[in-house]
Amino acid sequence: MSHSSAPTRRVTTATLAALHDRGEPAVWITAYDYPTAVFADRAGADVLLVGDSAAMTMLGHEGTTSITMDEMLVFTRAVCRGAKRAMVVGDMPFLSYQTSSARAIVNAGAFVAAGCGAVKLEGGRRVAPRVRAIADAGIAVMGHVGLTPQSLGQLGGYRVQGKTLAAAQRLLDDVLALQDSGAFAVLLEALPAETAAFIRERVDLLVYGIGAGPHVDGQLVIAHDVLGSFVGDIAPRFVRRYAEIGAATEQAIRSYAADVRASRFPAAEHCYPIDVDDEAELRAARRPRIEVAS
Fold first, then answer.
1. Is residue 254 part of a domain?
2. Looking at the predicted structure, is the pLDDT value of residue 155 above 80?
3. Is the pTM of this model over 0.90?
4. What is the 3-state secondary structure (H, E, C) of the chain?
5. Count of CB atoms within 10 A of residue 131's CB?
6. Active-site residue among 189, 250, 269, 281?
7. Would you say 87 and 140 are in contact if contact means Cβ atoms under 8 Å apart?
8. Using one digit for the tens of pLDDT, what is the confidence trace for 186-220?
9. Are residues 234 and 261 in the same domain?
10. Which structural domain range is residue 277 located in?
């Protein structure tokens, strides 16, 4: 019996812990649809986060709080169909976990049923009871502190967090509360690199960053940011564009439109061929074009 290829081994929380132990940073990127999931998976991404940022990147909302569980699950199922190796993490949307632990467990379970290996929720000490409830239900859960978009009203907008030692200590207290509640990881967003390092050195769970510098266990980026396809005015300092997919898409459609208007498309090579005699018979049977007098 021949073994032409070994089955792809799915990334799990144990895989991520092993990367940490070897000092290898994990690669996280958001994905919201099947094609992006396939491309990111082929490219070797370790984790695909189905972020509630889909509210902005995919649905055109101004913030993240407008997206629903049902919408998130549509995106999540599409991503899970495309990911063969990468672990998929579902981002619990606004009010899907804040109101009660029972509701948090049910909604976290819906992400797992869709194919996720873990869920993420925003907040520190104040959501620790929800983290504990979800973890006790047997679901891997990670926290998210620093700039938390679901709480922008309280934070005063998109601002860097943890810029003083006192602020860093408060964030550390949040992360320790998450750790004590059973979280396997935490995402730090929009923090100075030294603040992230200060936290990383004092906790045992995995620490990932988005705009939090290099001293963490891996990096997350928003796919639309690095691909140059985000439609909106937000352009964080920490984003590096690796492509200009948005501009390329617009130019491709401009070229297509110009070809249609100039009758350059479709050309002969875009038409289905038929037998020459049949073509002649059909042409002879066509109605003559009536010229409209000007």
1. yes
2. no
3. yes
4. CCCCCCCCCCCCHHHHHHHHHHCCCEEEEECCCHHHHHHHHHCCCCEEEECCCHHHHCCCCCCCCCCCHHHHHHHHHHHHHHCCCCEEEEECCCCCCCCCHHHHHHHHHHHHHHCCCEEECCECHHHHHHHHHHHHCCCCEEEEEECCHHHHHHHCCCCCCCCCHHHHHHHHHHHHHHHHCCCCEEEEECCCHHHHHHHHCCCCCEEEEECCCCCCCEEEECHHHHHCCCCCCCCCCCCCCCCCHHHHHHHHHHHHHHHHHCCCCCCHHHCCCCCHHHHHHHHHHCCCCCCCCC
5. 27
6. 189
7. no
8. 999 999 999 999 999 999 999 999 999 999 999 99
9. no
10. 249-285
Same domain, 224 and 116: yes
- Residue 156 sits in the same domain as residue 281: no
Q: List beta partners, residue 220.
A: 28
The total of structural domains in the chain comes to: 2
194 vs 162: CA distance, rounded Å: 9
Assess whether pLDDT exceeds 50 at residue 4: no
> Does residue 292 form part of some domain?
no
Is 189 marked active-site? yes
CATH number at residue 194: 3.20.20.60
